[in-house]
Each structure stands twice: as C-alpha cells, then as structure tokens.
Amino acid sequence: MPTITIGKTTIDYAIEKRSRRTHPAIQIDSYQKVTVLVPDNFDLHAVELLLHGKARWLLKHLNHSVPLPRLPLKEFVSGERFLFRGRLQALQVVGQQESGVVMDGGLIRVFIPITVVPQQYPSLVRQLLTKWYLEEANRLLPERIDHYVPIVGVAPTRLKIAEYKSRWGFCREDGLIALNWRIIQAPPSVIDYVVVHELTHRFHLHHRWPFWDAISEIIPDFEMRKQWLRDHGAELGW
Ligand SMILES: [Zn+2]
Prior knowledge:
Elements: E1 3-6, E2 9-17, E3 25-28, E4 34-38, H1 45-53, H2 55-61, E5 81-84, E6 87-96, E7 100-104, E8 107-113, H3 121-152, E9 158-162, E10 169-171, E11 176-180, H4 188-200, H5 209-218, H6 222-232
Parallel strand pairs: 2-4, 6-8, 9-11
Antiparallel strand pairs: 1-2, 3-4, 5-6, 7-8, 10-11
Helix pairs in contact: 3-4, 4-6
The chain binds zinc ion.
C-alpha cells in the first residue's frame, strides 16, 4: 500500500481507477481508510502531489485515529479529581470491609478492603474506578442512544461499550456502534455529540460534508462540542 508522510504522520492510501470519473477525489471511510479515486488515464505520480495539496484536510479528517493524548499519570489518591459528566469529583479512598465505589455529592468514594496493603491501593483504586465508570457508561450511554434514535432516524444493530485507546466511538458498516466508556467523563452535551456523530454514520460512513450537514441539523453547535474533545480529551485518558 502506498504511503505519504505529512509532518509526523504517515498515511496509507489506496488508489482506485474509475473510468467514468473526470477528476480525482479523495475519500476517507469510517475506518480511516484513505482511497484516491482517479480517472483511467490519470498520472499516478500526481496522486502524491494531490494528497500533499490536501494535507491539512487529511490530518483534520484523520484525527479520529490519532491516539488520545495522555496527561501525566494519575496517582489514584484521595483528593485527586476525576471528571464525571463534565463535573470534577474528588476521589476519596476509604478502607472498609468490602470494596466498592459510590458517588456521593462531589465525591467519588472508593472503598478498599482493610486487608489490602497501602502500596497496592493505587492499582486497586484504578481497577475499581475503571469498573465503576464502565458500569455507569453501560447505564447512561444506551439511554442517550435511545433518546437520539428517533431524532436521527436510525438505530444501531448492536451497541458495544468498551475501552478504546484511540477513539471515542465508531460505527461499522454492519450497523454496530461502539462507544468508548471514557466519554461519560465529558459534559452531557459532548456525550450527546459523540452519540449523534456515531448514529449519523449509519447514513454516512464517511466524514464528508453530507455527514457534517446531517449532524448540524440535530446539533447546530456541534463544532464547539467537537472542540471540547480536542481541548480536554487528554483529561479523559488516565
Ligand atoms: Zn466519525
């Protein structure tokens, strides 16, 4: 597969000849696969030039596949703050009979069995927190999907909520929608943007204008919500 390098990013692409085309076109599908459609007689050396000319556009549209930026690692100690639906909650680690997690006002209280030695606290807190967030995501995200199904006018064939290293969500050709549980740390408006984004992919499996047009009909200020993810995505990636 040919590749081009733009700055630090190397992009694989495929070339497909289309006899009825008069001009070349670049497509990016929902799997971030780049295809250049060219007329039969197109000079293949010009493809690279064409891609370089679209460098900014390519990077912008491929940003889904850029690994989420990471902040310095959390330490999982009392007083540290974690986002839940856009609100900062303070972590409180408590020794108790049994392990568990509860949200209590502005606190996320994590109970650690008193038999656990303190050196093991951080990894156990992390594990319990992750499990709790995933459970909350499994409660919250299907609700948001259900809310937007009649509005977008399409449902996923299956909904999967899991951890993804480099995306907030994706939609497969077979109708499966996957959402990253970490998105429930974002404000409700941003969670809804991700939900509508993936549902809209059921109609448009790409990021070209008909796709963004469809989103803006439901979420006119979607650009702001998208920007929130760019600015704060790192905070969700502990
Ligand atoms: Zn997308």
